[in-house]
Amino acid sequence: MSGRVVNIVKTLRTEVPECVAAGIIDMSTGMLLSVETSDSHPPEVLDMLAAATLELFQGRNVVMIENIFKERRGVVSDRHYFQEILVNSDNLAHLFLRVDSADEVVAVVVCRKSANVGMLFAQARRVLKDNGPL
Predict the structure, then answer these.
(1) Does the domain made of 2-130 have the CATH classification 3.30.43.10?
(2) Is 103 left (phi over 0), alpha (psi -120 to 50) or beta?
(3) 81 SS3 class
(4) Where are the domains positioned within the chain?
(5) Which of these, 7, 54, 92, 98, has the minimum number of CB atoms within 10 Å of its CB?
(6) What global pTM score does this model have?
């Protein structure tokens, strides 16, 4: 699986418009499985990315909101309700996507804010789909 993860990260970096960083996080362990960036970052910053992603998707309040939404909509499933989250900072767009074939794996793509958001979503989704199940 590690070779496939590295390949997905490299493909995200090259095929998503204005991408400056990409990574894959295993939510079950909280580990950053692979990362590639245009700049070098200290390991503690990358570790914080993994921890923040875990909190963003599976923090106590997020899970509570997911459960309320599922209950109100009559959804009976263990599948997480939130699948994609976009966070815009001053200069960057950070896209977090659950991998369809592995619900506990999240791909992170960071692009310049000038990137077309529709293309960011479309290309990131296509790369994950084209690389098949993990």
Answers:
(1) no
(2) alpha
(3) coil
(4) 2-130
(5) 7
(6) 0.90
